[in-house]
Amino acid sequence: MEELTPKIEEGLSCTMDENGCCIVPDDKNQLDWAYWDNQWAAGQTGWDIGYVAPALKEWFDSIIDKSAAILIPGCGNAYEAEYFLNKGFNNITVIDIAPSAVRILKEKFKNREGIRILEGDFFKHEGEYDVIVEQTFFCAIDPSLRENYCEQMARLLKKDGILGGLLFDRTFEQGPPFGGCKCEYTPLFHKSGLEVTEMNITDGSIPERMGTELFFKSRSN
């Protein structure tokens, strides 16, 4: 993947790591809406692979109920939402904290029904969902918020609802992205009432991330 190094703000640049993810100096790393909006404005969206990851596509194809309420937090360009719409799903909500991302999505989906596009903080979002998709959102939040993430997911899921997606099975010198491992993730999920039913290295990663991603599914109790 080509390395990009445009300026985000005076004195701060962003480069891509070998997995195509943005890294900035920790002392400048304010992970609020303005930080992510700067990333979008500068074209620094290295987390964006341009399509639905194969492991996610395989999972999506197994979901039968086209009316399932689906949430995609930190959705970015929302390729996953587009895939669901094209498969006939009609109750999709996407949320992103970056105003620039939301503007792009509202234009992209302006003629599509079955999708709700929200600008806002995932941790303040309210709703009930059958399925929540994790794709490069968990790794983008400060690790100190991971317990909050799991608690919020448990609140948003209906009984027996499914949270699933991809998590990094590696560490990074600095982030975002922030990595981790199965032995760290599983207790966090269980503590919040999310039963991990699957969490294994996937062969459905893009080449740059092959061998470093876990596909997982967890169920709300």
Describe this structure in words.
This protein is α/β, with parallel strands linked by helices. It has 2 domains: 7-41, no CATH class; 54-220, Rossmann fold (3-Layer(aba) Sandwich), CATH 3.40.50. Helix content is 25%, strand content 26%. It contains 6 helices and 11 strands. It has a 7-stranded mixed β-sheet, sandwiched between helices. A two-stranded antiparallel ribbon has the order 1-2. Strands 3-4 form a two-stranded antiparallel ribbon. Helix 5 links the parallel strand 8 and strand 9 (157-168). The longest helix is centred in the C-terminal third of the chain and has 11 residues, at 146-156. It is globular and about 45 Å long. Residues 1-29 have low confidence and may be disordered.
